[in-house]
Specification:
This protein is an alpha/beta fold and about 160 residues long. It is built from five helices and six strands, in the order ββββαβαβααα.
């Protein structure tokens, strides 16, 4: 008897989210190649993100997993923003029916700001860079996730 559950061909596609009280940066990446790039920014008005936009992006890209940044304090402790990001991730998983994972994003916004400053300093896509900081932060979150996966694979294999 054929299996009624459709087998999804692994694509390696992953979406990353940098949750913020004003904006949510979204990046797309590929687990197989370990690469990522900024994709979009969704406004988070009164802690009510544009769910239709977000779900539309998820439906379009059909990721294997969603990666949501977990903002921790410098010492690694949870903050009020951590709770908000966890609540967002839980709703995201429930609404999209796609599994999600939380990734430590302590330095992603700082790193994204450094990228923006570097691009502006050399006048490379200056306007784009300032507008895309949240998307760049989501990209960095995905790259952190890919690095963590790679480290886990290396430690398992010796």
């Amino acid at each position: 008897m054929p299996d009624l559950k459709q087998q999804k061909k692994p694509t390696g596609r992953v979406l990353g989210f940098d949750y913020g009280s004003l904006r949510i940066g979204i990046a797309v990446g590929n687990r197989i190649t370990g690469t990522a790039e900024p994709l979009d920014i969704i406004h988070n008005r009164r802690h009510a993100p544009g769910w239709m936009e977000i779900l539309g992006i998820i439906n379009e890209w059909k990721p294997e997993i969603l990666v949501v940044g977990l903002p921790l304090s410098i010492s690694g402790e949870e903050t009020e923003m951590s709770a908000e990001a966890r609540a967002f991730a839980k709703k995201l998983g429930n609404k999209s029916r796609v599994d999600y994972i939380m990734v430590d994003e302590r330095y992603s916004t700082y790193e994204a700001s450094e990228v923006v400053v570097s691009l502006a300093k050399y006048k490379i896509r200056k306007r784009w860079a300032f507008n895309e900081r949240d998307g760049i932060a989501a990209q960095i979150i995905l790259e952190t996730y890919f690095a963590d996966i790679k480290d886990q694979q290396l430690s398992r294999h010796g």
